[in-house]
């Protein structure tokens, strides 16, 4: 799984990029924790309303929705 640096409002996050079917399915399942500057970016070919469920999550999640034009469209 690739990792990138993602900048939002002058704050930099180290994120894993979930792009393949396997990565999208697994998500953050199995991770014990994340640091405040870590996350995961889920990429999709088409914009659509998505639902997420990650089996075995051990910590709460915050989800930020980003449109194809890089604008934050939901929290």
Notes on the structure:
The chain has 75 residues and is mainly beta. It has one helix and five strands, in the order ββαβββ. The strands form two sheets. It has a three-stranded mixed beta sheet. A hairpin with a 5-residue loop joins strand 4 (65-66) and strand 5.
SSE layout:
Blueprint: E1 2-8, E2 11-18, H1 21-26, E3 38-42, E4 65-66, E5 72-74
Parallel strand pairs: 2-3
Antiparallel strand pairs: 1-2, 4-5
In summary, what is this structure?
With 75 residues, this protein is mainly beta.
Largest sheet: 3 strands, mixed
| Number of DSSP-assigned strands | 5
Radius of gyration: 12 Å
The helical percent reads under 10%
What sequence of helices (H) and strands (E) makes up the elements? Answer: EEHEEE
Outline the low-pLDDT stretches.
none
Strand content: 25-35%
Termini separation (Å)?
25 Å
Order of strands across the main sheet: 1-2-3
Structural class: mainly beta
Shape: globular
What count of helical segments does DSSP give? 1
Summarize model confidence as the mean pLDDT: 91
């Amino acid at each position: 799984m690739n990792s990138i640096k993602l900048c939002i409002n002058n704050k930099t996050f180290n994120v894993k990029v979930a792009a393949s079917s396997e990565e999208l399915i697994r998500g953050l399942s199995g991770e014990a924790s994340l640091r405040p500057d870590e996350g995961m970016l889920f990429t999709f070919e088409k914009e659509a309303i998505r639902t997420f469920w990650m089996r075995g999550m051990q910590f709460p999640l915050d989800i930020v929705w980003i449109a194809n034009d890089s604008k934050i469209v939901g929290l």
